[in-house]
Amino acid sequence: MDKKEKPVFVTGDRPTGKLHIGHLVGSLKTRVEMQDSGKYQSYIFIADMQALTDNAKNPEKIRESIMEVALDYLSVGVDPQKSTIFIQSQVPQLNELTVIFLNLVTLSRLQRNPTVKNEIKEKGFKDSIPVGFLVYPISQTADTTAFNATLLPVGEDQNPMTEQGREIVRTFNAIYGDTLVESTNVLPNKKDSMRLPGTDGKAKMSKSMNNCIYLSDTPEEIKTKVMGMFTDPNHIKVEMPGETENNTVFVYLRALATDEDIRQFAPEFETLKSLENQYRKGGVGDVKIKKLLLSIIEKILTPIREKRHYYEEHIDEVIKILEDGCEKARSVAQETLSKVRKAMGIEYFKDNALKKYYLETKKNK
Ligand code: ATP
Ligand code: MG
Most buried among 43, 164, 267, 365, by the most CB within 10 A? Predict the structure, then answer.
């Protein structure tokens, strides 16, 4: 199949810090698998403009995090030979698309978005919501439609964004004719990976909540975080029965471990299911399950750390990858923007359009 015909996927991450294992299981893993399958064209971007919507007064944090996120991408296996990696602010076409889409959405529709509502609460904006923040689901639609994406490998919190995106595409196409394509989310196949909780047990591991295990953490940092995690508060003694469903250590095990890992690090159980059954009956200590989790996290993060180390030593290579990615992204986004402007009839100086509109109107009067 010609490369052009392959379906496109797009995903991005806000450079508000380093990426964590929630990103890994929620989105990075899926996108690397999709990239390596060779069946898709992939665009992966660092969403600095979006990060500024709630960090306008802290631009240094965003600037500093750009290279961190780029290093995280490369270290988990995003391959610049197979994927286009770019920085959002370097593709100004996305901003123009955003402004065009702003007119197609009502304020009340934006205010109903459950993810945005929740984030407004968490960030403590109260009555001082930055306008750019409120409209970020609209700019996300520009990010995906600009590249004709049909698939978005993301975590569960992104469902309302994609829904909003499809509405914008339908409205645009209904007014101006078939121009943009709709996209759907590709969620992780494990329930526990869709929204990995924080090490503090809170609903979501999130850079802004300071409850993360970062991909670039040292083994010592990870040990402290894992050994300090909550399990089942009623599981006080080893022999007591324990709960596994909402036990954060087990949530992580279900999201991260394979049965092969269990056989390697806890051979007496063979599968995660049988370990869970035994914990529920009693007789499995919390230190044991935390040590198991630690071994599995280390197994996953060791090769990632090594790759990161290579790129940290070859920073110019990383910068060149980003620069080339931005150039490619600009040219693809420009093609979409030109189509959009043409559909809207605002390419006034192309093919003498403005004069034609004038003469046409005059004739009809
Ligand atoms: P911030 O706190 O700045 O919003 P974040 O940690 O929520 O940062 P984002 O950059 O907003 O990270 O999210 C990037 C992608 O990672 C999205 O697709 C999101 O769904 C996914 N993701 C983020 N956190 C998790 C998580 N805890 N579990 C599963 N997926 C996640
Ligand atoms: Mg977020």
Answer: 43
Give the Cβ contact number of residue 245 at 10 Å: 11
- Ligand 1 atom index nearest CA of 25: 29
Residues having CB within 6 Å of any atom of ligand 1: 13-14, 16, 22-23, 26-27, 154-155, 157-158, 195-196, 204-208
Mean pLDDT of the chain: 95
Q: CA nearest 23: which of 80, 65, 84?
A: 65
Share of the chain above pLDDT 70, in %: 99
| Residue 50 CA to ligand 2 centre (angstroms) | 10
Residue closest via CA to ligand 1's atom 21 equals: 155
* Superfamily holding 217-310: Tyrosyl-Transfer RNA Synthetase (1.10.240.10)
Asked if the domains 3-195+315-361 and 217-310 are classified in one and the same CATH topology, the answer is no
Does CATH place domain 3-195+315-361 in 3.40.50.620?
yes
Please report the pLDDT score of residue 364 as a whole number.
87
Asked whether the predicted pLDDT for residue 350 surpasses 60, the reply is yes
Closest-CA residue to 134 (of 102, 169, 89, 88): 102
pLDDT band at 4; cut points 50, 70, 90? low
Burial of 345 (0-12, 13-18, 19+ CB in 10 A): exposed
Neighbour tally for 360: CB within 10 Å: 10
Spans of all domains in the chain: 3-195+315-361, 217-310
- Give the distance (Å) from ligand 1 centre to CA of residue 208: 10
Q: Which atom of ligand 1 is nearest to the CA of 20?
A: 6
Take residue 364 and report the two structure tokens written for it.
Answer: 């009809």
Span from the CA of 116 to the centroid of ligand 2 (angstroms) = 10
DSSP helix/strand/coil, 22 = helix
Q: Which ligand is nearest to the CA of 156?
A: 1
Residue whose token pair is 């904006």: 125
| 310 CA distance to ligand 2 middle (Å) | 28
Q: Average pLDDT, stretch 336-356?
A: 95
pLDDT in tens, 98-157: 999 999 999 999 999 999 999 999 899 988 999 999 999 999 999 999 999 999 999 889
pTM to 2 decimals? 0.94
